[in-house]
Design a protein that fits this description.
Elements lengths: L1 H49 L3 E3 L2 E5 L6 H10 L3 E2 L5 H10 L5 E7 L2 E4 L12 E2 L4 E5 L2 E5 L8 E5 L5
Parallel strand pairs: 6-8
Antiparallel strand pairs: 1-2, 2-9, 3-9, 4-5, 4-7, 7-8
Length: about 160
C-alpha cells in the first residue's frame, strides 16, 4: 500500500511541476521580449540623437536642410528606415507646427479624391483638414495644405520607436 500511495503522489506532483515549468518558461519569454523591446527602443533613441534627429512622444524626427520633391523626400526617409511625417494626434500636430519652418512635406497624399498617410491609413478629417487642390501635403503655420508633388520643399521624416518592439 505504501508503494502505491507513494507512486500516486509522484504522479500527481509531476503534472503540477510540468505546468509550472511551462508557465515559468512562457513568463521568461515575455520578460525577455519586453527587455529586447526596451533595448531596441533605447538604441533607436540613441541613434536618433546621435544623427541629429529630434525625439518626441516615442518618435524621432528629421527636419531637412535641403529641398526636394515629395517622392524624393519620401525616398530619403525610407533610406533611413523612416517615412515622411505621419501625424497621429493633436499633440504631435501642435509640436510639429511649432518646430517646422518653410512649409515642409509630410507623408500625406491624395489618391482618388481622398488623403492617405504613407503607412496606408486614411486621413482622419477630425485631426486635420487639408486645404489646396494638389496631391501631396505639406505642413504650414495654420495647418496642412496640398500642392503639386513635383515642387521642391524641405521635408520631415519620422521614425516610430514603438514599432521596434
Amino acid at each position: 500500500m505504501e508503494r502505491r500511495g507513494g507512486g500516486g503522489g509522484e504522479r500527481s506532483g509531476s503534472p503540477e511541476r510540468g505546468t509550472g515549468s511551462r508557465i515559468g518558461l512562457l513568463s521568461n519569454i515575455w520578460f525577455w521580449r519586453g527587455v529586447a523591446g526596451v533595448l531596441t527602443a533605447a538604441v533607436i533613441l540613441i541613434l536618433c540623437i546621435q544623427f541629429g534627429w529630434l525625439y518626441f512622444q516615442r518618435k524621432c524626427y528629421y527636419l531637412s536642410e535641403s529641398e526636394a520633391n515629395w517622392n524624393s523626400s519620401q525616398s530619403f526617409c525610407a533610406l533611413h528606415n523612416a517615412s515622411l511625417l505621419v501625424i497621429e494626434n493633436h499633440q504631435e500636430l501642435s509640436f510639429m507646427m511649432k518646430i517646422t519652418k518653410q512649409d515642409p512635406w509630410i507623408g500625406l497624399y491624395r489618391r482618388n479624391e481622398e488623403f492617405f498617410w504613407v503607412n496606408g491609413k486614411a486621413l482622419d478629417n477630425k485631426l486635420i483638414e487639408v486645404k489646396g487642390s494638389g496631391n501631396c501635403a505639406y505642413l504650414e503655420s495654420k495647418g496642412v495644405s496640398a500642392s503639386g508633388c513635383y515642387l521642391t520643399r524641405k521635408w520631415v521624416c519620422s521614425l516610430n520607436t514603438s514599432l521596434a518592439r
